[in-house]
Amino acid sequence: MKRNLEIKSLFLKHFEGARTELVFKDLYELIVCVMLSAQCTDKRVNLITPNLFKAYPSVADLARANLASVKALIQTCSFFNNKAQNLIKMARAVCENFKGNIPLDQKDLQSLAGVGQKTANVVLIEWCGANVMAVDTHIFRVAHRLNLSKAKTPELVEADLTRIFKDNLNRLHQAMVLFGRYTCKAKNPLCESCFLTKLCKSKDKRA
Length: 207
Prior knowledge:
Elements: H1 2-14, H2 27-37, H3 42-55, H4 59-63, H5 67-73, H6 80-97, H7 106-110, H8 117-128, H9 137-145, H10 154-165, H11 169-182
Helix pairs in contact: 1-11, 2-3, 2-8, 5-6, 9-11
């Protein structure tokens, strides 16, 4: 569909070189950051992780971590109780089942505690540049406002976007996250300065 191709082209043009705002230096830090970022802002995660990684600099260290200590380090993160438990379980599974190496296969990643389809895909996008789509709250909103999907779940929206766009999915993921975060916001979207205004017929559009 011509309109969808135009949307894709404009995203790639306006967000060339876009990357995640999460701060990490290796694969271990990446998966921890992505797990913490669920229903939490990247800004908040970046404030939490320096002390967490200082206390537990490797996946083996995290596997041996004290639950109360991890909770204390991430307590300003949403759902920190569950996330602390999942972080330790994830690290233990990596050490026990993958010889201490974070797997880079979607199925293997999803076998880890706290790692669903979105988290697995984000890890693959960020670390491998994989041609997959991961749908967070921003992309879910943008996809619906642009009538790219009417699906009710992130997984089904992911399937729609994958079918529509086909390639450059990793770059489109980055673009749509940043677009939803700073332009097509949940409240008070910046429609007057949006490069997609002429293609948008959302009921949320501001004249």
